[in-house]
Write a structure and sequence with these properties.
The protein has about 100 residues and is mainly beta. It is about 5% helix and about 70% strand. The chain has a single domain, classed as Thrombin, subunit H, CATH 2.40.10.
């Protein structure tokens, strides 16, 4: 099983000016295991295919990750920010499912 150590981005929303809400990203580093390592191409009605991965990463959660798993937005894997599509809580671990490239 391959190991993972990388950055996870957490989003918090705040009102910068009245009526204007902005997401602010806080990053923290976590370690764990790569459970599944696959990629796929998606061919929507476009010329070029979208690259997406179906990786599952199991990280060891600290109290911050346990309380804020709902605000996880991306994980850095192989130098690229990938969108976290879902999080499964199996404390003390969190299982992150990755999807397409994060464009936040």
């Amino acid at each position: 099983m391959a190991k993972y150590y990388g950055e996870i981005g957490f989003a918090t929303t705040s009102e910068d000016t009245p009526g204007v809400w902005v997401e602010h990203i806080t990053t923290r580093r976590y370690g764990g295991d790569i459970l599944n390592n696959t990629r796929r191409l998606e061919f929507p009605e476009k010329v070029d295919a979208d690259i997406s991965i179906s990786n599952r990463i199991s990280i060891v959660a600290d109290p911050y990750a346990k309380l804020n798993f709902h605000s996880m937005r991306y994980a850095v894997y192989m130098g690229t920010k990938w969108t976290i599509t879902s999080v499964e809580v199996q404390y003390p671990r969190l299982i992150l499912n990755l999807g397409g490239i994060y464009n936040g």
